[in-house]
Every structure is written in C-alpha cells, then in structure tokens.
Amino acid sequence: SQTIHQWPATLVQPVGSPLSLECTVEGTSNPNLYWYRQAAGRGLQLLFYSVGIGQISSEVPQNLSASRPQDRQFILSSKKLLLSDSGFYLCAWSGTGLNIQYFGAGTRLSVL
Amino acid sequence: AQSVAQPEDQVNVAEGNPLTVKCTYSVSGNPYLFWYVQYPNRGLQFLLKYITGDNLVKGSYGFEAEFNKSQTSFHLKKPSALVSDSALYFCAVRERSNDYKLSFGAGTTVTVRA
C-alpha cells in the first residue's frame, strides 16, 4: 500500500532563516505531488504541484519554492522566512486517472 | 473556474442525531466531488467521492453524500453521529478537464456532544 511521509512534524524558525520541508511517498511510481498551506486551521491554499521529476507548477507567488529531485520526493524551501510564512503545511500525492489526493500528517511551522 | 462553498463554519449535534454538512460547488461542466475530514494537527483523510452514476455515495465511517446537480450541492450526511465524528470537514471539487487541482471549501467544524 502507499504511504506518505512528511517531516518534521513541528518546526520553530526565526525570521530570515532558511526552510526545508521534505515529503516522500512510498508504494507508487510517478505520483503527482502537491504542497498546500493551511492557515488558522481552515481552508487549504495550493502552493505547488508537480507531475514529474523537475516539473514544478507554482500557484501563488510568494517567498517559497519547491523542488522534486527524485520521483517520490518533494521539497518545500525558502531562503529567508517571513512571519507570514507561519502555518500548517501539507503534502499530498495522487495517482493517475481519478487523482484522489492523499495527505501527509503535516508540518506546523512557526516563524518567530 | 472551479470553487466550493461551505456555508456553515460550525455544526453542532447531539450524539445519535443525524449529521449534515453542507457543500455547494461551481464548475464548468460535470464535477468530481470529494469530502475529507481533518482531526486536530493532522492531515486530511479522504472520506468519499462522487464521479458519476448513483447520486448517493457511501464512504468511510458510515458517511454518505448526495450529489444534486440541479442545486449544485454535495451535502455530507451521517444518520447517527458519534462523539468521535467531531472534526473539521472539507468539501472539494475538480473539473473533469482539470487533471490536478482541487479546490477546497473553507471547512466546517463539527462538534458532536455526548
């Protein structure tokens, strides 16, 4: 069966510091991968999605970037964090066809 | 463009009573519709989907949803709520011409009191 791993679970970073969040998927090949941000426990904002290695689509211009160095690895990065980058970050994957998205457990990021 | 509205921020019900969480959508053409549930500080869990066919869809944990094309709605229902159903529920939609992007509603917090 397929599983998705996200880490770390929580992260506290100072303003201006770099960020790297990692997401990996097991048990499937060539998944579609997604990064979302959820603010204040409410709606989800799609940040990036990827349909293959090195292919990244950005949905919202901002202080973040994403990379997909391997088929089942998706990384969310920032060179300098802002206070407004605080939130709950969720990684998801989907297969072909119906493309139901399955989510990781999330990373709680606090920028202080 | 695709979008979802969940008109209720909160729904409160007593255990054993029926539970309904409302969702309306807007798409070009026919939609794919989904419900997810989120427990505190966790990721979203997939509950059920509507693709085509029977308008009443059954999913995990006793939940079901009814697709109504004329009202562009996809309300989530459970005949008898449990305290453990207390969580945040999200409706999501995807146009059939769009392979990747889901649009989520703002979420509805369900509280089931004992």
Question: What does this molecule look like?
Answer:
The complex is a heterodimer of chains A (112) and B (114). Chain A is built from no helices and eleven strands. With 112 residues, chain A is an all-beta fold. In chain A, strands 2, 4, 5, 6, 9, 10 and 11 form a seven-stranded mixed sheet that branches. In chain A, strands 1-3-8-7 form a four-stranded antiparallel sheet, with no helix packed on it. The N and C termini of chain A lie far apart (38 Å). Chain B is mainly β and 114 residues long. In chain B, strands 2, 5, 6, 10, 11 and 12 form a six-stranded mixed sheet that branches. Chain B has a four-stranded antiparallel sheet with strand order 3-9-8-7, with no helix packed on it. In chain B, a hairpin with a 4-residue loop joins β8 and β9. Chain A binds chain B through residues 6, 32, 34, 41-44, 46, 49, 51, 57, 59, 88, 90, 92, 94, 98-106, 108, and chain B through 32, 34, 36, 41-46, 49, 51, 88, 90, 94, 99-102, 104-107.
Find the count of extended strands of chain B (DSSP E, 2+ residues): 12
What global shape of chain B is seen? globular
Radius of gyration of chain A, rounded?
13 Å
Averaged pLDDT of chain A, please?
92
**What's the end-to-end separation of chain A, in Å?**
38 Å
Q: Give me the strand/helix succession of chain A.
A: EEEEEEEEEEE
